[in-house]
Amino acid sequence: MTNASSITVLYFAQVAELIGTRQENWPLSAELSVADWVESLVARYPQLAPLQRRLKIAVNQEYAHKQTLIRVGDEVAVFEPVTGG
Length: 85
What we know:
The protein is an alpha+beta fold. The chain has a single domain (6-79), classed as Roll (Ubiquitin-like (UB roll)), CATH 3.10.20. The protein contains 2 helices and 7 strands. The strands form 2 sheets. A 5-stranded mixed β-sheet has the order 2-1-7-4-5. The protein is globular.
């Protein structure tokens, strides 16, 4: 559950395993682009650096591009691309 100054972040698969959690609240005082937020994510969890270029982000259950804005109250999901076979 988010409060008036945070976002809910969901982590999936290897991302969740690397950081040791599947969900957390992040403080957010102003809107931020996905590209800038991912930089903050990797600064907070350096173990994600090798995956940084492959990470996919969804904002409010919609695939987000680097310029997509994240706003207070949003739900942000972090995952790697899925391949089938």
